[in-house]
Design goal:
This protein is of the alpha+beta class and 249 residues long. It has two domains: 101 residues, no CATH class; 102 residues, Immunoglobulin-like (Sandwich), CATH 2.60.40. 32% of the residues lie in helices and 25% in strands. The chain has six helices and eight strands. It has a four-stranded antiparallel sheet with strand order 1-2-3-6, with no helix packed on it. Strands 5-4-7-8 form a four-stranded antiparallel sheet, with no helix packed on it. Strand 7 and strand 8 form a beta hairpin. Helix 3 crosses helix 5. The radius of gyration is 43 Å and the shape is rod-shaped.
């Protein structure tokens, strides 16, 4: 039976294997998910064939008048012994099929992987552990590229920029806190291509904005010809060129 273990399943189910081949196949069956699946599907085949045989009309047999045809005692004993052996094998096949079905229910995914052809195997996938994603800043989008962004500068300096797309470019509103004066500043918009545009400028008095004694933030508005979806970041700089805060988008 070497080299033909899978093809012997039908012969095993029908009970036509000899004892040695029958034993070898059952040993093979214990370690072969493929044959286990086929056994679950085919183990009732002998009963189906018996049913067909019972309902199939007998062929006409010429009978000599006055003579009754019957098998001899030796033939009858052999047929009965063979039928007994086949009944025992069918019971054993049924038990093994039930055990295989139970095993497939418990280990269904593993068996499915085991019987999948090698050439049908999909690419290996490496699953990364889920990572926490920081929540996006609150948005006031009115069109693609608009929205509100925040940035943190030195000390307590913080900025929020709201961008609204316009036909002529982008309308920009800046809210600035934690800035002490006196200092003159400007808001710059930087595009993906590296173009720099001045959005607006202002002066901070000595009292400052968003600081102890002057808690209100500074709010200024301006505009730029850059489309909102092309702006990658804003920078708040002092007139001497020093960078105060960056707001990425």
């Amino acid at each position: 039976m070497a080299g033909s273990a899978h093809t012997d399943l039908a012969a095993y189910v029908l009970g036509v294997l000899d004892e040695a081949d029958n034993t070898r196949f059952e040993q093979h069956l214990l370690d072969c998910p493929h044959c286990q699946l086929d056994l679950v599907e085919l183990y009732q085949l002998p009963d189906v064939l018996d049913l067909v045989k019972k309902n199939w009309p007998d062929p006409p047999v010429p009978v000599t008048p006055g003579r009754t045809l019957a098998p001899g005692p030796r033939v009858l004993r052999a047929l009965m012994a063979e039928a007994t052996v086949k009944r025992k094998r069918r019971r054993r096949v049924g038990l093994l099929a039930a055990a295989a079905a139970a095993a497939l229910v418990v280990a269904g995914p593993l068996v499915t992987l085991a019987v999948r052809p090698a050439d049908a195997a999909g690419p290996s996938v490496s699953l990364a552990a889920p990572t926490s994603v920081p929540p996006a800043p609150p948005s006031s989008l009115s069109a693609p590229g608009g929205g509100k962004s925040a940035g943190q500068g030195a000390a307590a300096l913080a900025a929020h920029v709201t961008v609204t797309p316009e036909e002529w470019g982008s309308a920009v509103e800046l809210e600035l806190t934690g800035v002490a004066g006196p200092v003159s500043c400007q808001l710059l918009a930087i595009s993906r291509a590296g173009d720099i545009r001045t959005v607006t400028g202002w002066s901070v008095p000595a009292k400052g904005y968003g600081v102890p004694g002057s808690p209100d933030p500074l709010r200024v508005t301006g505009g730029t010809s850059l489309p909102a979806d092309q702006i990658t970041r804003f920078e708040v700089r002092a007139d001497d060129g020093s960078l105060l805060v960056v707001v990425d988008r």
